[in-house]
User: What shape does this take?
Amino acid sequence: MAEPVGPQPPAWARAAFVGLAVGAYAAAGAQATESLSSGEPWNWGGMLARWAGYAVLGAVLDGLTRSGVFLSPDQRDGRAVVAAALRTGELADGATPDAWRAVLVLSQLIAVLVAVAAVVENDSAPGLWALALALAAFVVVPLGWLGGRRRRVRALLAQLDAA
Assistant: This one.
């Protein structure tokens, strides 16, 4: 069994972290799509403006979601299952690997899209390569940092690999 979870960050810190992460992926994905579809070079100013907007939206939606405003009773039960899995280090009976991996896959696809934009429309710009690598790495890092759950998440993913 995994070690107990330590102290949790305040709700505002989690909302800010989620907002910044959501903003980064949404802004980079939107800018990469725009750059590739229009044939225009990467617009850092536009991406940063989008990031700010998406970050605020992500933080607000995270706060509302955590409050349970948008959840049906079944979804609240599902959230309780996920919270229990992270708290105890044990997957619930019938847990599906696809549901746990969807966010990781989407995040990696956005990182690949940014890398493609770096090559296709921006002459392999080093800044875009750095952004693509940061986005790819950032998928893994928050799993460990957010709430001190690194060991627990790794143990759960190992259980999924064995399933």
